[in-house]
Write a structure and sequence with these properties.
This protein is α+β, with helices and mostly antiparallel strands. It has one domain: Beta-lactamase Inhibitory Protein, Chain:B, domain 1. Helices cover 16% and strands 34% of the residues.
Length: 85
């Protein structure tokens, strides 16, 4: 899913819809989270904690571009359906 790296925050939201949660990070960047349950932000790791359900995290830099992403427990078919156009 590295194809999302470099895309704009707006492009991400237009494709995926409104995120489940948005977490501001200490350095002024943000973490956009999509998933099917509520999770909490882990300040120590900069990630989202929780287990078992599909979760997708997109890290957004100061230029509002995706610079990293992480997918856990998500079926490949679901992720491919959301692939960047």
């Amino acid at each position: 899913m590295d194809s999302w790296n470099g895309c704009s925050k707006q492009e991400l939201i237009s494709q995926w819809g409104a995120p489940n949660q948005v977490f501001p990070l200490d350095d002024g960047e943000i973490l956009i989270f999509y998933g099917n349950t509520k999770y909490s932000h882990n300040v120590m790791t900069g990630g989202v904690s929780g287990a078992g359900a599909c979760k997708m995290q997109f890290f957004i830099n100061h230029s509002e571009k995706v610079y990293n992403n992480r997918f856990e427990n998500c079926g490949r078919k679901y992720i491919m359906n959301k692939k960047r156009r």
